[in-house]
Write a structure and sequence with these properties.
Two copies of one chain form a homodimer. Chain A is α/β, with parallel strands linked by helices and 329 residues long. Chain A has three domains: 3-46, lambda repressor-like DNA-binding domains (434 Repressor (Amino-terminal Domain)), CATH 1.10.260.40; 58-160 and 292-320, Rossmann fold, CATH 3.40.50.2300; 162-289, 3-Layer(aba) Sandwich (Rossmann fold). In chain A, 47% of the residues lie in helices and 17% in strands. In chain A, helix 12 (246-258) links the parallel strand 8 and strand 9 (268-272). The first copy, chain A, is elongated, with a radius of gyration of 26 Å. Chains A and B meet through helix 4, helix 5, strand 2, helix 6 and helix 12 of A and helix 4, helix 5, strand 2, helix 6 and helix 12 of B. The structure holds a DNA duplex (30 and 30 nucleotides).
Chain lengths: 329, 329
Amino acid sequence: MTIYEIAEKADVSASTVSRVINNKSSVNKKTRNKVQKVLDEYNFSLNETARSLSTNQSKMIGILVADIRNSHYTDIAYETETNLLENGYCSIIINAGNTAERMRESIEILSKRQVDGAIIIGSIFQNKVVEKTLKKNFNDRPIIFLNGSLPNKNVYNLVVAEDEGVKESVYLLKEHGYKHILFMSWMETASNTLKIKGYKEGISNLGYTTYLLNITEKEIKTHNSDVLINYLKLNPQIDAIISSDDLLATLTIKCLTENNINIPNEIGIIGINNSEYCYITTPSLTSLDNKQSELGQLGAQSLINLLNNKSVSKKIQIFPEIIERESLR
Amino acid sequence: MTIYEIAEKADVSASTVSRVINNKSSVNKKTRNKVQKVLDEYNFSLNETARSLSTNQSKMIGILVADIRNSHYTDIAYETETNLLENGYCSIIINAGNTAERMRESIEILSKRQVDGAIIIGSIFQNKVVEKTLKKNFNDRPIIFLNGSLPNKNVYNLVVAEDEGVKESVYLLKEHGYKHILFMSWMETASNTLKIKGYKEGISNLGYTTYLLNITEKEIKTHNSDVLINYLKLNPQIDAIISSDDLLATLTIKCLTENNINIPNEIGIIGINNSEYCYITTPSLTSLDNKQSELGQLGAQSLINLLNNKSVSKKIQIFPEIIERESLR
DNA sequence: TTAAATACTGCAACCGGTTGCAAATTATAA
DNA sequence: TTATAATTTGCAACCGGTTGCAGTATTTAA
């Protein structure tokens, strides 16, 4: 069923049908009713592809996610998707994988699909290939980069100041009487680098000693706890751990508990992300809330503003908040 | 940049350019090279919207997800999306929310976007509104329903026999010497009903007694453990628990541990989903692997077969597998 | 009652591709 | 060398909408 068929049944031109559908310009009330009746009768559903081609606006937004199986990203994607939908934009969520090749491909797909704009989620996209591909394929459409930053002229960077959050965590540990704070991580992402930066600044400001431990992805996947225990044996003065994410913190708690190290008395723990993991551990986990929902929402809102030619700052920063639970004494 | 501009630069007609791009019919080698050179030079990117309109094939698939924040669904969505992409189909993932209204709206969006087919994930979509809306908007395009079933003529139902899995779990508990098995759940979904069915059958086949406990969503969100402890006080003979999902099992372990009930000696526990939660508990969690990746993969493959006019069975069933860990004695 | 202004409506071009058909070119066979 | 077949290529219509412009109908003002 096309507007032409509707037009025929309603005995008007296709233009008029189009005007009725879009509530555009002046259509006589009688005509409008007549057309609307036919529209309703046939349960007309407009072909958005044709409209896109004609208006040169797809009303689709591409969302590039590093890994949709990772709730850290999907929490953000959920917020953006919901917000965009409320504003009449439909989302194409693409799982861009980890390889540069796959990222390039994903961006090209979005470009060919004529999306009106894009939201990129995850610091993993902060690289030359993405930068170049965007320049080639997306030079005129707005892009929001969540939790990362790219210098392209049409990319708007929206980041959570994770470094500040970690710094605050260090200060909080001091307030709770901890003195030897280990920062433990397992992913070498830009986000992690930022966290380490905040950690180092905080430690340095307090005149404390830095302790950094990096677990390999393999070790965490096999839940190998020797690395941590050995490290603690070598550095028995350590009395607090900041883990780069809640999953790692959860595994750390499991490891310490099994080795009869008391949390929070012997060692205090802070996770990052304030995820569901925080509730299921004993003791429950103090964690840095990264404000992911806010980030997603703000991202969607910024993109909509750009699409409506409102001005948006090229760089926006929001700040995490520490949610205290039982893992600190 | 359009094929017309390319055509002009290459001094051929747009038809020829189109033929080169699509590797279609006979194009002279010389001409092909000439066109390809211009294509490359200008880094031509084809407008898929125009192609969709013209070919009446969008090469897009709609994926309807009940909640993209829930890893149970995104694991499946990830598999389907990856598989579809490998076959040249791009996915529109829509988070369809919980309300019937939102589901209707989502289906209509997909229909208007002219997707070639759809994949529906989650038993929550197993309702009259969805059934009707699909009939109205999707009557001619194939739909794969994962973990649910709808009688529409173009809907292909692919389900995991969760009832069989739970039944097997009951049998396994018996083998491990457990006799009084509680089934605990907190969501009233069709999937849960199926699990309970399997539980009851298993229990009945063994001549055991059924113990069912339903926690409200509010209770689980607030991590209220009184309900379980009280239930166990009233039924002290209970020596095993099957939880409707791993999160609930994890919370159960936390609750029992805090109340000094030994797992697996006093009470054995089986979770469902074989998720990441299984590793982080002490003891680690025996869980029913729902074969979500297989489901997602099979779903994508079936849809592709349908789109290529190959025959696909209207109903396919796959079976879970129990992964044993430390939570059984 | 008539001229000018305003409200409606339709024509036709356009968005950027694809494709059947026919024309033009080249290759093959007689 | 010519008739015929096969290969290449372009024309023009089509996919299903939108929209500027012009023409017609209806008001409003004079």
